[in-house]
Known about the structure:
- The chain is α/β, with parallel strands linked by helices.
- It contains seven helices and five strands; from the N terminus they run H-H-E-H-E-H-E-H-E-H-E-H.
Amino acid sequence: MDFLQDNLIWAALAAVSGGWLLFDFIRNQGNKSLLSPIEATLLINREEAVVVDVRDQGEYSQGHIPNARHLPLSELARRSNELEKFKERPIILCCASGARSASAIGTLKKAGFEKLYNLRGGLFEWEKAGQPISRKRK
């Protein structure tokens, strides 16, 4: 008990962070379209998933997932036919944080795509996980 009193701040911090992790786990439990960077890599390697980056040109130029196709969210509805040949393959959408790519999933569902996934945390989490980044232009 003396330990807890002496380290109350650290104990509270541990409890709050543990609670947040549990909350995040429960919140995302039903959403099977969210992929971690490792899950995305496995899907790319095992099922030849196509990565579509929906960020703006400037963001894409600063770095992207190797071999990612670039279709900015603002142009996705108009240019979704460019992905038609990949309709049977899994498509992983990514952006900086995962918010725009979540919106892109809705756009592509309306266009008839079914195997759609969102890179959880976007490029931020991808880089944090130590995954490769390319700066090559396509």
